[in-house]
């Protein structure tokens, strides 16, 4: 499974994720900077979009990490070669939260997505929170994993996995993993929790657990623990 990844269940651009981001960037190719894409919130209005991009820039400034916004809000933006060029050379591309379906459809088959694939191939980091994490999962899945773009071809990603006050999370915790084909592993990432790839393993960061299931096997991993990629 090639590539470097950082996937967050929720809580992007908050202080807790700094250690996970530094870990992910350590040894990554590129100039050390981060490209921030709030594309998943692109149809939620100017104020929401500006809030996410602004939070990203402030967050990385607080960590001493250079960052730039790549202002891709729709499918037309994603076809702009200039937007793709803003990703070339960076060490990490970060997709913040919103609608996974909208994010996946906006990026599909575009120069911006091709730039993301080049970044992964050259040893940069694909990072995403919530919707941004879900699009990394296996392709060809049914709801709620239908937005996966296949970067992790045998893994489906669940997010906000401990938000039990939300009825849809309670429902998904039981149903969603059972809807996966044989051989596809499920990883459910709690809120304010992240996993970062480390050679042949994932390492857990943050306050919650990571729920890993394959067939009848189910295990939970907490901060500092590692499990196979």
Structural domain count: 1
What is the multimeric organization of the chains shown? single chain
CATH superfamily: Class I glutamine amidotransferase (GATase) domain
> Biggest sheet, open or closed, and with what strands and sense?
8 strands, mixed
Distance between the termini: 8 Å
Q: Total number of β-strand segments? A: 12
Question: Radius of gyration from the CA trace?
Answer: 16 Å
Note the overall shape.
Answer: globular
Describe the structure.
- The chain is of the alpha/beta class and 229 residues long.
- It has one domain (4-228): Rossmann fold.
- It has eight helices and twelve strands.
- It has helices spanning 18-25, 46-63, 75-78, 81-85, 100-107, 111-121, 131-134, 167-175, and strands spanning 4-8, 34-37, 67-69, 92-95, 125-129, 155-158, 185-189, 193-198, 201-206, 210-214, 217-221, 226-228.
- The chain has an eight-stranded mixed β-sheet.
- The longest helix is centred in the N-terminal third of the chain and has 18 residues, at 46-63.
- The chain is globular.
